[in-house]
């Protein structure tokens, strides 16, 4: 069963910590380090120098980014290994922009990355990665297109807050949380075209105690993607669409893989998305698992696949492994899910032949499809239903 009490407690603690207003002893304005808010002058060094100065402080510090447009054409890595302070706030009132030449940033893995930092908060601001030209290159199947960069990444960090940030047109993922602990994300807006490739809104993996609140995501891939090793995740009040929904996975990429456990998604709205609530794994051996998941109070508005477990995941059916997924999925609750499906099959549980899904529960589910009979499909799954469930359950 999901440890709801523990998860709620940690979320409340995160919210209380973020509500405390501590006046910074030192404020470092990027303009003082030579940044130019004209959108044309490379301000990279000014941001690096401001970070170095903030890190050297023994007290709470704020890096101030006033209104304006700041050109940061290439990747910047903010490292916390040598930071003395454990409280740095990026107060961003302006917009950070990448180069209009996608090749400059496209070869990097990340645009703005934070590694081994503690107590970093990002407040406000807009990141404009100008990814549209790279998407066009990829969509045209042109050769020589770089992979592209994630706009904002936190790695091996703790006590992180992202509040009120807007991410536009990321080349790849918008926000990634990897190997972190105690992360609080609130009021974030993600905006990219519905056909933009691999532009996941928020991706979390190998992390613990992450809370995402009051977030709007419009993108071309998963609104929220949950990778291996994620434990204690709370997502609430999220709007998704366009996009591919909220996905656990894809899993089973590797034979040795950490599991996903204790995930709660509440009060989500999906508008015209490819999927709603999805769990997906490749059909290959894996030590991974999914356990203790709650999907509660979700609204589907013309969603192609409102509820889906796909353990035969193989995009574009290219080089699909002819095996059964080793990922064990258990204890998953769907409660108070309603709205409209874009297809006749509104619930599809396609589980592993060697590791059938177990403990799948449907409670008060009401999905319709164009005034026609809506259907459910089950393969290798065990579970039960309670309350009104429409379509009729195949469990």
UniProtKB/TrEMBL annotation:
Query: Which superkingdom is the protein from?
Result: Eukaryota
Q: Where is the protein found, in the record's own terms? A: Secreted, Cell wall
- Lineage per the UniProt record: Eukaryota, Viridiplantae, Streptophyta, Embryophyta, Tracheophyta
Gene3D superfamilies documented for this protein:
Single-stranded right-handed beta-helix, Pectin lyase-like
MF terms from GO for this chain are: polygalacturonase activity
* Record-given protein name: Pectin lyase-like superfamily protein
Q: Which SMART domains match?
A: PbH1
User: To which protein family does this belong?
Assistant: Belongs to the glycosyl hydrolase 28 family.
Mitochondrion as UniProt keyword: no
Chief site of localization: secreted
This protein's species is Prunus dulcis
What transmembrane ranges does the database entry give?
A: 7-28
From the UniProt record, give one GO term of the biological process aspect: cell wall organization
Q: Which UniProt keywords apply?
A: Cell wall, Cell wall biogenesis/degradation, Glycosidase, Hydrolase, Membrane, Secreted, Transmembrane, Transmembrane helix
**Record bears the keyword DNA damage:** no
């Amino acid at each position: 069963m999901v440890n709801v009490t523990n998860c709620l407690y940690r979320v409340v603690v995160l919210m209380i910590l973020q509500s405390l207003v501590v006046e910074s002893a030192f404020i470092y304005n990027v303009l003082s380090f030579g940044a130019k808010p004209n959108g044309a002058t490379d301000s990279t060094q000014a941001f690096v120098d401001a970070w170095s100065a903030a890190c050297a402080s023994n007290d709470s510090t704020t890096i101030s980014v006033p209104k304006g447009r700041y050109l940061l054409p290439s990747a910047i890595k903010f490292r916390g290994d040598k930071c003395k302070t454990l409280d740095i706030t990026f107060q961003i009132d302006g917009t950070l922009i990448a180069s209009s030449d996608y090749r400059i940033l496209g070869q990097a893995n990340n645009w703005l990355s934070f590694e081994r930092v503690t107590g970093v908060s990002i407040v406000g601001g807009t990141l404009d990665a100008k990814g549209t030209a790279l998407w066009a290159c990829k969509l045209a199947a042109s050769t020589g297109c770089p992979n592209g960069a994630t706009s904002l990444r936190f790695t091996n960090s703790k006590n992180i807050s992202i509040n009120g940030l807007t991410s536009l047109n990321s080349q790849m993922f918008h926000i990634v949380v990897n190997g972190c602990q105690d992360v609080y994300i609130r009021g974030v807006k993600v905006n990219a075209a519905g056909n933009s490739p691999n532009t996941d809104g928020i991706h979390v993996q190998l992390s613990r105690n992450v809370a995402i609140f009051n977030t709007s995501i419009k993108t071309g891939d998963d609104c929220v993607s949950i990778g291996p090793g994620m434990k204690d995740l709370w997502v609430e009040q999220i709007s998704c669409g366009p996009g591919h929904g909220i996905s656990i996975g894809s899993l089973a990429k590797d034979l040795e893989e950490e599991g996903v456990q204790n995930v709660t998604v509440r009060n989500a709205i999906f508008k015209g998305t490819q999927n709603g609530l999805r769990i997906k794994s490749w059909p290959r051996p894996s030590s991974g698992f999914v356990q203790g998941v709650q999907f509660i109070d979700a609204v589907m508005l013309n969603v192609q696949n409102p509820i889906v477990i796909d353990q035969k995941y193989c995009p574009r059916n290219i080089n699909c492994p002819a095996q059964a997924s080793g990922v064990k999925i258990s204890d998953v609750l769907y409660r108070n899910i309603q709205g409209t499906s874009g297809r006749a099959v509104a619930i599809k549980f396609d589980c592993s032949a060697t590791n059938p899904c177990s403990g799948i529960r449907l409670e008060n589910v009401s999905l319709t499809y164009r005034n026609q009979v809506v259907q459910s499909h089950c393969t290798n799954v065990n579970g039960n239903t309670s309350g009104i469930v429409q379509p009729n359950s195949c469990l």
